[in-house]
Design brief:
It is a single chain. By secondary structure, the protein is α/β, with parallel strands linked by helices. The protein has 3 domains: 95 residues, Arginyl tRNA synthetase N-terminal domain (Gyrase A, domain 2), CATH 3.30.1360.70; 174 residues, HUPs (Rossmann fold); 77 residues, no CATH class. It is 47% helix and 16% strand. The strands form 3 sheets. The chain has a 5-stranded mixed beta sheet. Helix 8 crosses helix 10.
């Protein structure tokens, strides 16, 4: 069975050939010559386009624009083409999206499982990172949506012959995790259900407590401790975060969503990537530590200067972002920046890797480790 795009092109060629014959039966214009005139225009101009009027203009001794206008009344709609328009001598066609979608679905159903497969990737490695859910709660529908989108993108790249590495970045040093750990240490509750669901309920309890009394100092102290891998709090935090991820992945597996590797934010810090990233940014003059103002005693990134290293940061509305808070804890941005600098080879660093679990599809899920 031919592809929908091939059928569309065939219909376009046939419509043009018939229109030319009606305009002047004495003109001999072969299908290959018409095919050579076909291209894809900008989306606003149509879905498929032909410059055949420019070829005919030489034969008829008329301008391409006039030739195209003379062809227009003879162009008839087809099964897949709902409209023709002329622009500057070009003849543009617009597809009937409903009819085209039906044909695509019909073609896929009637074809083998290899429909659409491509060798365009040629084994090139692609990293898809998703869904990066904080390890202190169960997935909600938004997390599931992100996971399924990430999985679909990964499948598409693999189908096009790319070597895909499916990564999940686990933010186990964030403020939400510190708040959940505070509840774990202070509320005395014991897990009585699926661990991520129980932990999510504990997180809600902690937030209700925070509305009644100020425990921010305790939580900030805890946040500092879990960033220091030598503390018992850091070890406990990693332990309960891993339990939460195992529970979250029970949900992932029920949707046949599998990964290759977990990247833990705590390991980004322990591998000294953050330290090296901050040093590089400091050497470039892109970070500063103001003594006054709203960012007093914080380590702040000047995004305008940092944009000289990362072109993606150019032109942002805000020129400053906090990397290290005044209490010495790192923001998510700082650790994420370090991780991406490592991924792109801007800073060096080595992770240790270990097996985390065997997934239901038989594939090993690896994890970074301290």
């Amino acid at each position: 069975m031919s592809s929908p795009s091939y059928k569309l092109k065939r219909e376009f060629i046939s419509a043009l050939k018939n229109a030319i014959n009606k305009l002047d039966p004495n003109i001999s214009m072969g299908e290959e010559e018409i095919r050579a005139s076909i291209s894809r225009p900008k989306k606003e101009f149509g879905d498929i386009s032909s410059s055949i009027s420019f070829r005919l203009a030489r034969l008829l001794r008329l301008s391409p624009h006039i030739v195209a206008q003379k062809l227009m009344p003879h162009l008839e709609k087809t099964e897949l083409i709902k409209e023709f328009k002329e622009l500057d001598g070009y003849i543009n066609a617009f597809i009937d999206e409903k009819a085209y979608a039906k044909l695509v679905i019909k073609t896929i159903i009637e074809s083998t499982s290899n429909y659409g497969r491509s060798e365009i990737g040629n084994g090139k490695k692609v990293i898809i990172e998703y869904p990066s859910v904080n390890p202190n709660k169960p997935w909600h529908v938004g997390h599931l949506k992100n996971a399924l989108i990430g999985d679909a993108i990964s499948n598409i790249f693999e189908f096009c012959s790319y070597t895909v590495e499916r990564e999940d970045y686990i933010d186990d040093l964030g403020l939400q995790v510190a708040e959940s750990l505070w509840g774990y240490l202070n509320l005395g509750d014991k897990p009585n259900k699926k661990f991520d669901q129980w932990l999510g309920e504990e997180y809600v309890k902690v937030n209700n407590i925070m509305k009644e009394r100020d425990i921010s100092k305790e939580i900030n102290e805890l946040l500092k401790k879990i960033e220091d891998h030598s503390t018992s709090e850091a070890r406990l935090g990693r332990e309960f975060a891993e339990k939460c991820v195992v529970a979250q992945y029970e949900t992932a597996f029920s949707y046949r969503c599998y990964h290759d590797i977990l990247i833990w934010e705590s390991d980004v810090v322990r591998a000294k990537l953050l330290e090296r990233a901050l040093k590089l940014a400091e050497e470039s003059g892109a970070i500063e530590k103001p003594s006054t103002g709203k960012y007093a005693n914080c380590v702040v990134a000047n995004l305008e200067k940092l944009g000289k290293i990362f072109k993606e940061l150019e032109g942002l509305e805000e020129n400053e972002k906090v990397l290290i808070r005044s209490n010495g804890t790192a923001t998510y941005l700082a650790k994420d920046l370090a991780f991406h600098m490592w991924k792109f080879g801007i800073i060096k660093g080595d992770f240790l890797f270990d097996e985390f679990m065997i997934q239901p599809n038989g594939k090993v899920l690896y994890t970074t480790s301290a």
